[in-house]
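Exam review. A common question shows you a sequence with its structure tokens and asks you to describe the fold in words. Practice with the pair below. Do the first one on your own.
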Amino acid sequence: MSSTKTRSALATAALTSVQILAVLLAIWVGLRLLGIAWSVVWPLVIALLLTTLTEPPSRWLRNHGFKPALAAATVTVLSLLVVIGALVLIVVPVASQSSELVTGVEQGIAQLREWAAGPPLNIGDDQLTAALDSGVAQLQERVSDIINIGLSGVSTVVNGVVNAVLAVFLMFFFLKDGHRFLPWLRQQLPGRLSEDVPVVAGRSWAMLGSFVRSQAFVGALDAVFIGIGLWLVGVPLVLPLAVLTFLAAFVPIVGALFAGFVAVLIALVFNGFTAALIVLAIILAVQQLEGNVFQPMIQSKGLGLHAAVVLLAVTLGGSLAGIVGSLLAVPVAGVIAVLWGYLREQLAEPEAEPSPEDAEIDEESLEAAQPGD
């Protein structure tokens, strides 16, 4: 073994390791700064996601004579009306049947007690009473914890409302001035960056729009299939439950669980235990198809990512940052793919042009290969 080649290989490996550590350190510092500024970054991300859905109609209005401010204001107001209408479709039918819902819940509790009193559990009323007394005692001991949790929940709701309002205003400004961003960015950056950064930003924006539209399409599929299943079973409030399913599709994991729980509860209250099991089976089947077939296929086609990459990205994002990580995992993976693709394009060696001698040889070979007269 040559000592010179060994030292050269070790030096190259050490230099590569230092460079990798420097890149990882830069990523760690960036994530720390992102966490510090998260209160500003989160509404900015929400506004970008909303803008990807509302930018096409805003662009259409601008192309048909609307001023940018008027087009942005029109689309923003219409978007708010759509959201309010969706909420009305959920709240009004539920409120109109609130008395029946309360009666159904009471009957469901009574049926549950009768079922628990029979075999194989054979739980008597005295045991249920003792269990309730124990639960009340536990609640009394943890009143302070419950109050703190309630205050934390109120704070979370307030922060959510503030973020939503801020996101709506940011969406308006993105719709109004977003088409000027790339030209402005090209003027502000020096040298080669004035070409590279706008190209990457434009491709990332197109990728983000594809992600949000695919997520909306997947949510619509869930709402249609689950709504048809609920209608066939005879569950009431089908339209509110379908709308809730569509809206919950934008919140990974928890959204689907919440919408499914509400649908099963309504089926249990109004249609009985058997219907609730059927609804649960329908929801599980649709969610399995959506999570393992529809969503990876649609998102991988729109983002240029393999379906396995989409699944792994969602799993990794959920393990690292919970619900927010699951929501942002796929677009982050898409941005990384866009950046990597652009780097590959820039770092690829250009194909060498054939020399005149090689061209003459190719022509002679082509003439020799042609059949004679």
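Now try the second one, then compare your answer with the model answer below.
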Amino acid sequence: MARGGAGGRRPTRVRGRRHLKPDEIERIAREVRTWDYARTPLTWQAVIDLAEGLFLYRWSRQALESHEAIKTAFQTRQIEGPRKARRAPRDPALAIYARQVEALQDENRALKAKLAAYEQRFARWLANALTEKGMTEARLDAALPPNDRGQTDPKLRGGVK
């Protein structure tokens, strides 16, 4: 009996492109950061399958890798590799808490790296702004002008008459 698709896998129906949403990117990155090597080795194919299982859409490796959060999580987890075998705690709740603490520590490291990148970007913008002719630090610190929420029709600008 002939099966559809290569290797007996169900053929994937090609649909229109679908961009990853920010919450989807974060969810995939979080799953990769907490990847369980006991389940399966971490490969791009495994990440593609994970994303398809989570969101019922199959993205390509390039589509997933083009997002910095997913790529960084993948590379970091690849470098870490399977963690050294640790003795499992007797209480299953402790194992769950340990995994949650580990995930929060990973997220904390990622946020610190993101903050450092923003600080570098701000320093670069400040340096560029100060080198502009006539731009001073006091002018950069000035409050933004208030929004003009008035009438846009020039005939009615003075109010209804």
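Model answer, second protein: Helices lie at 22-33, 44-55, 61-65, 68-80, 92-131, 137-141. Residues 1-8 have pLDDT under 50 and may be disordered. Full marks require stating both points clearly.
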